[in-house]
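Researcher: Let's do a round of design. I'm pasting the structure tokens now; please hold your answer until I've finished.
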């Protein structure tokens, strides 16, 4: 039996996958000098603001869940002190009192001389929604996808470990990177699992190193890499 998807199944997969990917993803830039922030309209909306709202460190910290605020403040201070990217898994409270579970995936931001001047990346809202249940529909509708599931499950497991996500949230993050970079999901997962073998595995730097791998994994996929 052929393991690849038929064109009809591939189109069905895209429809289901599109319904289950996270829509609340937005970028940010943070310059260490002067602690200047820039965020996309999507990140502003996560916090309950319309476009045009100028973020500050104080504003961002004020929206952190009280139980997570100290941890985020510490991560920011460390980022400024060491030049490491700002990355975190925490909760934010929007202007209406709604709680959002987010992960911040970031990398270094450098100037023309390749000197670190800040950090930039993405806020990903992984709050549980009805969209997460679409994964069950995907499994029922496209059994042919099982041929690619082993490596996808490995990549999901890495995301779950590093970011503290559940299986559905991890799949949504993988799907987001697949669509954001116009890369086949299976190829992305395969390369990410391959990259994991090269990690230094330092206790303090694992999250930062993994963020970099996740944000750049599509650039290392061979041109003849596997297709989902």
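Researcher: That's everything. Go ahead.
Model: Designed sequence:
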């Amino acid at each position: 039996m052929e393991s690849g998807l038929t064109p009809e199944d591939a189109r069905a997969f895209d429809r289901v996958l599109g319904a289950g990917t996270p829509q609340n993803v937005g970028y940010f830039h943070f310059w260490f000098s002067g602690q200047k922030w820039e965020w996309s309209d999507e990140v502003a909306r996560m916090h309950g603001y319309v476009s045009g709202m100028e973020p500050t460190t104080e504003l961002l910290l004020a929206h952190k869940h009280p139980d997570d605020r100290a941890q985020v403040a510490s991560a920011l201070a460390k980022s400024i002190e060491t030049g490491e990217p700002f990355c975190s898994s925490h909760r934010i409270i929007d202007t209406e009192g709604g709680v959002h579970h987010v992960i911040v995936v970031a990398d270094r931001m450098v100037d023309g001389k390749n000197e670190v001047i800040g950090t930039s990346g993405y806020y990903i809202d992984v709050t549980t929604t009805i969209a997460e249940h679409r994964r069950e529909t995907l499994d029922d509708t496209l059994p042919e996808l099982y041929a690619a599931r082993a490596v996808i499950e490995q990549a999901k497991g890495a995301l779950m470990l590093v970011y503290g996500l559940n299986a559905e949230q991890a799949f949504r993050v993988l799907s987001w990177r697949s669509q954001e970079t116009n890369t086949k999901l299976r190829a992305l997962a395969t390369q990410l699992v391959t990259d994991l073998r090269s990690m230094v595995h330092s206790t303090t730097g694992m999250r930062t190193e993994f963020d970099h791998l996740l944000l750049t994994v599509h650039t290392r996929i061979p041109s003849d890499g596997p297709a989902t």
